[in-house]
Amino acid sequence: MTLVAAASGIVLTVFYSRKDDSKRRKLSIIDPMILSSFCDEQTLRDIGQSYRDTNPDENSRDKLMRFLTKGLNNGDKSSINDSEAINELELRIENEFKETDPLIIKGWVVSKTEARQCALLSLS
Question: Where are the beta strands (DSSP E) in 1-124?
Fold first, then answer.
Protein backbone atom coordinates (compact mmCIF):
# COMPACT_ATOMS: atom_id res chain seq x y z
CA MET A 1 0.00 0.00 0.00
CA THR A 2 2.82 2.39 0.87
CA LEU A 3 4.48 1.63 -2.45
CA VAL A 4 1.28 2.50 -4.33
CA ALA A 5 0.95 5.79 -2.44
CA ALA A 6 4.59 6.69 -3.12
CA ALA A 7 4.27 5.84 -6.81
CA SER A 8 1.10 7.91 -7.06
CA GLY A 9 2.86 10.82 -5.43
CA ILE A 10 5.75 10.59 -7.89
CA VAL A 11 3.42 10.39 -10.89
CA LEU A 12 1.39 13.38 -9.70
CA THR A 13 4.55 15.39 -8.99
CA VAL A 14 5.92 14.68 -12.46
CA PHE A 15 2.55 15.44 -14.05
CA TYR A 16 2.12 18.76 -12.28
CA SER A 17 5.74 19.81 -12.79
CA ARG A 18 5.43 19.10 -16.51
CA LYS A 19 2.09 20.88 -16.58
CA ASP A 20 3.70 23.87 -14.84
CA ASP A 21 6.68 23.71 -17.24
CA SER A 22 4.40 23.81 -20.26
CA LYS A 23 2.56 26.76 -18.71
CA ARG A 24 5.85 28.60 -18.16
CA ARG A 25 6.94 27.91 -21.73
CA LYS A 26 3.90 29.85 -22.91
CA LEU A 27 5.27 32.95 -21.22
CA SER A 28 7.23 35.52 -23.13
CA ILE A 29 10.96 35.69 -23.67
CA ILE A 30 11.40 37.90 -20.61
CA ASP A 31 11.19 34.79 -18.43
CA PRO A 32 14.70 33.43 -17.78
CA MET A 33 13.69 29.76 -17.91
CA ILE A 34 16.71 28.08 -16.35
CA LEU A 35 17.34 30.74 -13.73
CA SER A 36 13.67 30.79 -12.74
CA SER A 37 13.92 27.16 -11.70
CA PHE A 38 16.29 28.33 -8.91
CA CYS A 39 14.92 31.79 -8.11
CA ASP A 40 11.54 33.19 -7.22
CA GLU A 41 10.12 36.12 -9.16
CA GLN A 42 11.25 38.73 -6.63
CA THR A 43 14.84 37.47 -6.83
CA LEU A 44 14.69 37.64 -10.64
CA ARG A 45 13.40 41.20 -10.42
CA ASP A 46 16.17 42.11 -7.96
CA ILE A 47 18.78 40.69 -10.34
CA GLY A 48 17.20 42.71 -13.14
CA GLN A 49 17.14 45.92 -11.14
CA SER A 50 20.79 45.46 -10.18
CA TYR A 51 21.72 44.83 -13.82
CA ARG A 52 19.88 47.98 -14.90
CA ASP A 53 21.59 49.98 -12.14
CA THR A 54 25.03 48.91 -13.37
CA ASN A 55 24.11 49.21 -17.07
CA PRO A 56 22.13 52.45 -17.34
CA ASP A 57 22.55 52.50 -21.13
CA GLU A 58 20.29 49.40 -21.25
CA ASN A 59 17.68 50.75 -18.85
CA SER A 60 14.70 50.70 -21.21
CA ARG A 61 12.27 48.10 -22.48
CA ASP A 62 13.05 48.89 -26.12
CA LYS A 63 16.81 48.48 -25.75
CA LEU A 64 16.51 45.28 -23.74
CA MET A 65 14.04 43.81 -26.24
CA ARG A 66 16.37 44.71 -29.10
CA PHE A 67 19.27 42.92 -27.39
CA LEU A 68 17.15 39.88 -26.56
CA THR A 69 15.51 39.53 -29.96
CA LYS A 70 18.63 40.27 -31.99
CA GLY A 71 19.38 37.22 -34.12
CA LEU A 72 16.19 35.39 -33.23
CA ASN A 73 14.37 34.06 -36.29
CA ASN A 74 16.71 36.10 -38.46
CA GLY A 75 15.87 39.24 -36.48
CA ASP A 76 12.28 39.43 -37.75
CA LYS A 77 10.39 40.44 -34.60
CA SER A 78 7.03 40.02 -36.30
CA SER A 79 7.61 36.28 -36.72
CA ILE A 80 9.01 35.47 -33.28
CA ASN A 81 7.23 32.49 -31.85
CA ASP A 82 7.60 32.44 -28.07
CA SER A 83 8.51 28.75 -27.84
CA GLU A 84 11.08 29.10 -30.63
CA ALA A 85 12.45 32.27 -29.09
CA ILE A 86 12.74 30.64 -25.67
CA ASN A 87 14.61 27.68 -27.17
CA GLU A 88 16.94 30.01 -29.05
CA LEU A 89 17.56 32.08 -25.93
CA GLU A 90 18.31 28.95 -23.90
CA LEU A 91 20.92 27.98 -26.51
CA ARG A 92 22.33 31.51 -26.46
CA ILE A 93 22.61 31.36 -22.66
CA GLU A 94 24.35 27.99 -22.81
CA ASN A 95 26.81 29.34 -25.38
CA GLU A 96 27.47 32.46 -23.31
CA PHE A 97 28.44 30.29 -20.34
CA LYS A 98 30.81 28.33 -22.58
CA GLU A 99 32.33 31.27 -24.45
CA THR A 100 32.29 34.27 -22.10
CA ASP A 101 32.71 35.05 -18.44
CA PRO A 102 29.40 34.96 -16.60
CA LEU A 103 28.17 37.88 -14.54
CA ILE A 104 27.77 37.72 -10.78
CA ILE A 105 24.72 39.73 -9.73
CA LYS A 106 23.28 39.65 -6.22
CA GLY A 107 25.32 36.48 -5.59
CA TRP A 108 23.89 34.67 -8.63
CA VAL A 109 26.01 33.55 -11.57
CA VAL A 110 24.12 34.53 -14.72
CA SER A 111 24.75 35.00 -18.41
CA LYS A 112 24.32 38.42 -19.97
CA THR A 113 21.14 37.24 -21.69
CA GLU A 114 19.67 36.03 -18.40
CA ALA A 115 20.57 39.36 -16.79
CA ARG A 116 18.81 41.19 -19.62
CA GLN A 117 15.75 38.96 -19.26
CA CYS A 118 15.66 39.75 -15.54
CA ALA A 119 16.12 43.45 -16.30
CA LEU A 120 13.18 43.38 -18.67
CA LEU A 121 11.12 41.46 -16.12
CA SER A 122 11.97 44.08 -13.50
CA LEU A 123 10.49 46.75 -15.77
CA SER A 124 7.17 44.93 -16.11
Answer: 103-105, 108-110
